[in-house]
Every structure is written in structure tokens, then in C-alpha cells.
Write a structure and sequence with these properties.
The chain is elongated, with a radius of gyration of 21 Å. The protein has 183 residues and is mainly α. It has six helices and two strands. It has a domain of 119 residues. Helix 1 crosses helix 4, helix 1 packs antiparallel against helix 6 and helix 5 runs antiparallel to helix 6. Helices cover 64% and strands 4% of the residues. It has a two-stranded antiparallel ribbon with strand order 1-2.
Length: 183
Amino acid sequence: MKKLLIGGIVGGLIIYIWQMLSWTMLDLHRSSMDYTPKQDTILNFLNSQLSEDGSFYMISTPKGTSSEEMEKRMQERLGKPWALVDYHKELHVNMGANIFRGLITTILMVIFAVWILAKLSPTSFAATFVATLLIGVIVFINSPYTMHIWYPKADIMAHLMDALIGWGLCGIWLGWYLNRKPR
């Protein structure tokens, strides 16, 4: 239990710190949150057109549209602009709560990984490192890359770097910590 908690907490902190650096100081995800000088005009227009929070695929059709009509609309839209808009009527920022939630979920994620890794005994530094790195690749493929297949993301390479570097650093830690000889 001690190895599970220490491995998970330290590993979670390693991934969390990498992600913090990736999104802030290193600014790797800038392309997914880029600036346009027309943002106030666009936001004012969206606010006048949308009555509630939501995600809007700006070539979508109303619920109940037949598959034939959906296909016809898709064909008409080929080669034309489209957008995926996440709209919120009000900005609410609670940095403390967001940081806490992000940290706790990252630690829990690594605790789950440590539990899985602990079931793979006997093991070695290399096996633990590779298994941890593969968990990072699974995380990347499952969410950012799968979404990128359907809705291309400008920062997909930054997400891949987050998975490889964050989980790689965590794998170095877990490879050492989980395989060291007891004193």
C-alpha cells in the first residue's frame, strides 16, 4: 500500500508538473488557444445567437434529420468552412479548485497505473519504464488522438509530447522506485 501511494503521488506530481510546464511556460498548446483580433466581435455575435452553454458542430443537422438528408448536407459542405465551438455565457475561473482537481485526478491516474504495474512481477526498470510509457501512449490514443481523427486539433503534437514526456518521466521514477531493493 505504501509503494502504491508513494509511487502514485510522486508519479502524479511528475506528470502534473510536466503538463503545467507544457501549457504555461513552454506554451506548447498555444495553437489550440490562439488569438484573433476579432475575438470580441465573434464573442458578441455568438452571445447574440446562442442562448445557452454548449458545444456546437457548425455543420450539424437538427436531431431527427434523416441519414439521407445528413449525407446531402455533408456533400454540400465539402470544401467549405466549418467550426467546432465550445460556448459559455459567462467566464468563471476558480484556479485553486481547478489546480486541486487536476492534481488529484493525475495522482489517481498514476495510482491506478502503479496498481497494474505491481501485478506484473517480477519486473525490471526497463519493463516498468516501457509499460508506463505505453500507458501514456494509450492515454494519448484514447482521447486527444481519437478526437483529432474526427475534429483535427492544432496542438495534437503537443498532446503527443505530453504523453511521451510526462509518462516517460513518470516511467523513469516508477522504474527506479518500484524495482529498488528493500533496505
